[in-house]
């Protein structure tokens, strides 16, 4: 407890939420993309009859089940924190946030829960089309869940469509559509969902590359690596474009966040430089040892080399976000995004030369990039959430006004408990997932009778993978 003795309840409550939501975020970021990947695999099996797709489906289904379960469990904790550490925020913003979270449960969670059992345990009990329907339902459910959660978060970033009641609560205005489709929501939704797809692609690519380094002829490893590299090559450029559009939207609605991202303490009336690297010095209001490209920031943000850009000197000091954290988190995210693009382009070159499964350094690089998606989404989340400070509801409710009246020792005790339990439970789950990934995809599954129904419910897709051939 002494290690937290110098911190107040506000800091500890923020640290606790940041810790728990960071653990939680990596699981949905993986399960959203993995559910869609499973849908594609099963759809390709039904279309082509090639057993390799069914084998890969079974391989990744086990990993998806564990990831999905850890995502659900880690998400429940966040809901409790709204009622404990952030009860004032829940009281004031509850009429807006509460219904949005309820819509997520009613539309997404119920859909996922209703079909998840069929997806996980029905592959030998129902017909292939019904099973594929269940897989599609779960994949769509994860996307619907992302829709509502990001709508709620985006409203906190760019609040619109609400009114403030006499008791200080945020209440819905005449139309819920203005709340749901707030100004930053479409950009954040696209950017986050694509990030989830890329996260999954690089995990799949890393696993494929790992096994290619050991057995270049493994058909499952070859197929998953090829599919992942197509995703990297085609989607990484789209993500960079989507991120640029999201940045322009942020400049319009949250300019202080962009100032912190860019390290612009001072205004630049004749074109702002793009600071590539440096050490933000908030005490002196400058970036030390800056490596910069003159006027490039104005070109990116305003599409004009000489366009003026305002700096944090135009923002009240008590409304400055923590520049150092935002500055570096943003660069980690962008740097990894361009590294993903580089791997994608490298794979295209290898594919063009018919060496996709032979270039060992490409495979090694893909293995190293396996965790990059998780790091990038966490860095993006830090950029978004820390850059919003000192506001919970941007421009209208401060974080200091949102925290519950708790004593620091009480929050510190629960934070320590979370740290211990999370590393034990989710650490064990992650190690088990890595163990499953360490096993190569089997060339074929156990055979089942090729004629007649396996059970009265229908026939299994497994006959098509007997011996690894359709």
UniProtKB/TrEMBL annotation:
Q: Where are the transmembrane segments?
A: 25-47, 59-80, 100-123, 130-150, 189-213, 225-242, 325-349, 361-382, 415-434
Q: Where in the cell is it found?
A: Cell inner membrane; Cell membrane
InterPro entries, A to Z:
Cyt-d_ubiquinol_oxidase_su_1
Pfam families per the UniProt record, alphabetical: Cyt_bd_oxida_I (PF01654)
Q: Supply one GO BP term.
A: aerobic electron transport chain
Q: Which GO terms describe its molecular function?
A: electron transfer activity; heme binding; metal ion binding; oxidoreductase activity, acting on diphenols and related substances as donors, oxygen as acceptor
Specify the protein's topology with respect to the membrane. Answer: Multi-pass membrane protein
The answer to whether UniProt assigns keyword Heme to this entry is yes
Q: Region annotation Disordered: residue ranges?
A: 444-470
A single cellular component GO annotation? plasma membrane
User: Quick one: signal sequence residues?
Assistant: none
- Which keywords describe this protein according to UniProt? Cell membrane, Electron transport, Heme, Iron, Membrane, Metal-binding, Transmembrane, Transmembrane helix, Transport
Q: Family assignment?
A: Belongs to the cytochrome ubiquinol oxidase subunit 1 family.
Put simply, this protein is called: Cytochrome bd-I ubiquinol oxidase subunit 1 apoprotein
